[in-house]
Amino acid sequence: MLAIDVRMIRCAGIGTYLRQLVPRVAAALTPYPISLIGDTTHLKTLHWVADRNYDLVQCRAPIYSLREQVELPCKVPRQTKLLWSPHYNIPLCYSGRMVVTIHDTFHLAMPQFVAGWHRRAYARLMFRAVRRKACEIFCVSQFGKGQLLSFCPQGTQPITVTLNGVDESWTDFPKEPRPHDRPYILFVGNLKPHKNLVRLLEAVELMGHRMPHDVVIVGRSEGFITGDPEVRTRASALGDRVRFVGELDHDDVLLRRYYTWADLLVLPSLYESFGLPALEAMACGCPVVLSQVGGMPEVYGDAAAYCNPLDPQDMADRILRVLTNGAVRADLIERGLERARQLNWQGTATHIATSIKRLVAQP
Hints:
Blueprint lengths: L1 E4 L8 H15 L5 E5 L1 H4 L3 H4 L4 E4 L7 H10 L6 E4 L12 E5 L3 H4 L7 H17 L2 E4 L2 H10 L7 E3 L22 E5 L8 H11 L6 E5 L11 H7 L5 E5 L6 H9 L2 E4 L8 H8 L4 E4 L4 H5 L4 E3 L4 H13 L1 H17 L2 H17 L2
Parallel strand pairs: 1-2, 1-4, 2-3, 4-5, 5-6, 6-7, 8-9, 8-11, 9-10, 11-12, 12-13
């Protein structure tokens, strides 16, 4: 009755979204048959898949490919009443009803970071198709909803804001051993130009010895359409003060330890609709400095400090203030923990399951 495209379940970001929400939504839809469309070999290794009688449908068509447009519609079981796509790359030729999650409209909002006219045209085509075909759209922030309406105003379906969350287990896990033996500030995210890491490293240079911390960067640095090679060049000027850890699985306890032992998380992005690493850091008791752009001020309010992402000096000043002012630091930690308690995946799953039940009940 419900089919879910889970091909991206091993990815960062959307993969986290799927792993956290699919079992919770399924639990709220106990009477409903659910099909999972993706790599069945991997799906069978997930403990929550074994706990429920899912119909597993093999589909390894790569995302953003012509193959997915040909193969995916054929893989949706005939008895499906609703297809849930977790990303804007919906099957254009699928004639059934669908709900779609839009995490952001980065490809439309910041075309200067999307290499190739054909990729920009593809994004425009797909977002407009979502507005045309979806029965309902889930956005992860009001900012994200506003951006979608601005770039793709043609559509009549409900657009529901379902904020992301963090699992309760992030507040209770083995925190030893320390993952880095010197004091450090942390960045978590893929090394893409809009993540603005170059300016963060410029801010570190400006602080000099006033900030004795290292910079630990957790995230994938290769395999992107648009990577940011300048990050490595800028990092080399700081010598061994910069450590590239590489990508860590969201469920890896080592990632949580990096958050816990960091003196500060900095997300200097030029564009974020939600900024999930900030919420994860807050759950681990790590204060955060965020860009004052995009959806992050809306999502995190007074639980974070904010900087101008285009001004390395302002970024440096904000970082130093949190690192050196004990009262400010303690207040941010307390507010961050409270925000993490407010935003949990179960609440998100309840909102989504409610929408799915309503749509399935409609003729």
